[in-house]
Amino acid sequence: MIKQEGMILSPYIDLYDIIIPEDHELRQLNELVDFSFVDDLLKHTYTSGNGRPGYRPQVMFKYLMLKRMYELSDRDVVERTRTDMAFKYFLGLAPEEDVIEFSSLTKFRKLRLKDESVMDALISKSVQTAAENGIKLSKTIIVDSTHTEARYGTKSAREYLLEVCKNLRKKVYSVNEEYVKQMPKKPDNNRIGLYEEVVDYCERVYRLVDDDESLKAYKNIQENMNLLRETLDDVNEELTYSKDSDAKTGHKTADTEFFGYKTHIAMTPERIITAAAVTSGEKHDGKELASLADKTEANGIDVDNIVGDGAYSEKENIEYANENEINLVSKLSKTVSSGNRKNALDGEFSYNKDAKMYVCPAGHMAIHKSKTGAKNPNKPQRESCFFDVKKCVQCPLREKCGYKENQKSKTYNITVKMSKIHQDHQDRQQTEYYQELAGERYKIEAKNAELKKEHGYAHTVYAGINGMMLQAGVTIFVVNLKRILKLKKR
C-alpha cells in the first residue's frame, strides 16, 4: 500500500507563503506539473498489501529531481530537506515533518527506475506539459549527441575508491592535522588485485571520521563523507571488481577519446527536448535518427524537418526521410560509402565525422587512411583505413573481423561513390530553405552545454546503462520544465 498524498494539515503551513516567494523555481514547478503521473508510471513495481507502506513514488521522484537540480548525493539531498523550507514545500511535506532515510532513496532509484520506458515517459510528460501550457512546438527537430564520461572512467573501482577517500582525508587534515597520525594505513599500491583491502581501508577511514562530531560539523567534510559512503555502497553492489561494464570508449576527435556513454537528443527550435536515446560511447550518431524521429512523433509532434550535422547524412537516413516525406538537413559527408562486405562485422564499422576516420566494431579508430584508384570524377575511388595491428592481436573480435594471425596490417576498404539518392540530397543542400534550417543547429549545442555545466551531465552519477538512462530521464525532465517556465514568461 502506498501512502496517498493529500492536503497538508499543519499549524505551520502558512510559513510557506511567508518564506517562499511566488516566483521561486520550486514553487513554480509544483504549480506547473501534476506529479501524480509518477504514481501511475511506477505502480507496477509495487506490491500492494505486503509489508509496511512505502513512500509515494512521486515524492521519491521529486527527491531525485532535487538531486539533479542542485547536484547533491542521496544523503545530502535528504539532509538539506530537513532545514530547507523550499525543498519541503516542493516535496509536499509539512514544515515540521520528518524526512525519509537516505537509504530509501537509494533503493528507490535502483529498484523502481530500471529501464528505458521511464526515460521516455518523463520526456513525453514534459512535452505534454508544454502543450498544456499553450506552448506551440515547431515541426522541426534538431538532432545531436552529447557524451557523458563514466563516473569510474577508465579507472577501476579500486582506483576510484582510493581517490574519493583521499579527498576526504585532505579535508580532514585541513581542519585537524593530528589526524595524519590516526588515519589507517593505506593499502600497498603494488597489490593491485586485493580489492577487499581497499574497501576495508575506506570503511575504516569513514568510521574514524564519523566518530568525531566536531569534524562532521564542517559541511565540506560531511559532503565528502557522504560521497565516500555512496561510492562504497554502489561499488559493492554494482561494480565489484571492474570499471563500469556498460560504458565503452568513444572518440571526440582523432586525438581525444572518452570512456562512457552517448545521449542522442532530438530538440525543437524552441529548445524543448522531444526524444532521447542512450547508448555506449562508441555508437555512431546517425544510427539513432529514425528512433529519435519516431519517439518525437509518438509524443504528438509531426516531424517535417530534421536538422543535424554530417553524421546523419548516411544513405539509410536519407531513405528514411524520403519515405516519411521529411526534409533532412544534414550536409552530405565526404565519405559516402558502401563497405567491402567481406566479413560479418562490416556493417558495424562506423564513420566518425569529427575525426574523419572509421571506427571498428571494438571501438578502435583507424590510425591513418589513403585513397587509391582512378582520379576520374565519374568513377568511384577506393579508400583504405589502416588500424593498429597491436590492438587487433588482443581484440576478442579479431576472428569475426577478418584478422589473421601474424597479419602485418589490418585495413577496412570503402568504395567512395555518389548514387542518385546522394546526388539529389546534395542538390537540396543548395536551396535557400535548406540553408535557413541549417542555421538552427547551433541551438542544440547550447542545450548540450547547459546539460553539462548546469546539471552535471558531463559525468555519470550512477553506474551502468540503466543508471545512465535514469540520469538522462530526470535531467531532461528538469531542463524541459525550466525551459517551459521561461517560455511561459514570454
- Uncertain segments are 1-5, 238-242, 338-344
- From the spread of the alpha carbons, the general shape counts as flat
Multimer state = single chain
Report, as a whole number of angstroms, the end-to-end distance: 43 Å
Q: How does the SSE layout of this entry go?
A:
Blueprint (H helix, E strand, L loop, with lengths): L14 H5 L5 H8 L4 H6 L14 H14 L3 H10 L1 H7 L10 H10 L4 H17 L7 E10 L7 H19 L3 H4 L12 H16 L2 H4 L2 H21 L8 E4 L5 E11 L5 E8 L8 H10 L6 E3 L7 H9 L3 E3 L7 E3 L10 E3 L4 E3 L8 E5 L8 E7 L1 H6 L15 E7 L3 H9 L3 H7 L3 H14 L8 H26 L1
Task: Describe this structure in a few short sentences.
With 490 residues, this protein is an alpha+beta fold.
Features:
490 residues; alpha+beta; 20 helices; 45% helix
How would you characterize this protein structure?
The chain has 490 residues and is of the alpha+beta class. It contains 20 helices and twelve strands. The chain has helices at residues 15-19, 25-32, 37-42, 57-70, 74-83, 85-91, 102-111, 116-132, 157-175, 179-182, 195-210, 213-216, 219-239, 289-298, 315-323, 389-394, 420-428, 432-438, 442-455, 464-489, and strands spanning 140-149, 248-251, 257-267, 273-280, 305-307, 327-329, 337-339, 350-352, 357-359, 368-372, 381-387, 410-416. Strands 1, 2, 3, 4, 5 and 6 form a six-stranded mixed beta sheet that branches. A four-stranded antiparallel beta sheet has the order 7-12-11-10. Helix 8 packs parallel to helix 20, helix 9 (157-175) packs parallel to helix 11 and helix 9 (157-175) packs antiparallel against helix 13 (219-239). The longest helix is centred in the last third of the chain and has 26 residues, at 464-489. It is flat, with a radius of gyration of 26 Å. Mean pLDDT is 84; it is low at 1-5, 238-242 and 338-344.
